[in-house]
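Fold it.
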Amino acid sequence: MLSKNQLGFFYMFISVCAFSLMDVIVKWSDDYPVGQVLFFRGFCGIIPILFLIPKDRYLDFYKTTRPFLHFKRCLAGLIALVSIFVALRNLPLATVVSISFAAPIFITIFSIFLLNEKVGLYRWLAVLVGFVGIIFITEPGFSSLNLYYIYPIIFCLGLSYVAIAIRKLSSTEPAWLISFFFSFSIMLLSFLSFYQGWVLPTLLDLFLLSMVGILGGLANLWLSQSYKYSEVSLVSPLKYLGLVFAIIFGYFIWNEIPTSKTLLGALLVIVSSIIIFRREMYLKKKLSVSRHE
């Protein structure tokens, strides 16, 4: 039998693997409109959630006392999700993943204004280090006027508000309801792109596109299970395996080789995130960032 900490490690590892595979499929799917891929992310992402709804809530599972906060959480999540999809299709995989690790930096800033939290010297220094890392990663893009480098930053901004909104919602709402509303909103948004001309997928492509939703849904559920069984401080560093997977997949599938600036910037962003995270733990707060939730 595995201990609780070992179970936490296991769930975090398969969560990172699922997110990495989802990123690969999204990058591969550039023959299909973004809206069509969003449909599969939303529709198929609902499937794992259905198994979590309690039997006594089948008839009124959708009821909530905080609809406006759900709306704002979904809106920020949609902005983040569309941005990361566009970025994955137009930038090297390792670059996108590296910048995505900067989310805790923006959460720290947002928490000052939205949660009235006090941020001390250590976290301000971490924010500064993180921004230097982002500059290293994005400098080649801005020097060549490649505006796609903005999209991962927009993703971080959207995800930062999502993390704060979930922190508020979790006090009264079950995790499955928060996830359901988000997946349902993704599906609704995807219908707005139907006029762009959705492409009839082959059976293999249909399976892979469906896996975008299933992997995304399962990854977030496994992430939650990881935090349930183990201390956040023990399992969170495993999330940075995502960069290793991104470098491996990017090299072998698309022949992408990260530049030295990308790797240096990624290191600074990771160090910044770890400092912020450790400081949060020291202050007895639980900081969990669910990537596409």
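The radius of gyration is 18 Å.
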